[in-house]
Write a structure and sequence with these properties.
alpha+beta, about 80 residues
Amino acid sequence: MTNASLQRQGIGSGIIQKLCSDLNKLHFHSVQLSWVKGNQQAEQFWLKNGFSALHETVSTSALSVIAAKRRLQPDATS
């Protein structure tokens, strides 16, 4: 999460792009995460950044979360 005053400037997306690029260089094939069901801001952010919803699950705190995954592209320079 970024400070509210820094949102909608591409900073969070830039961080995710750099992280995924670095993980790809380390030969990771995908990244998985979850967001709380109903959190539209989080859902839109992760979908915009290439993640696809996999399934819904219920956490121990009785909140439903959406599991998501982003496949990383093979590095053409490897």
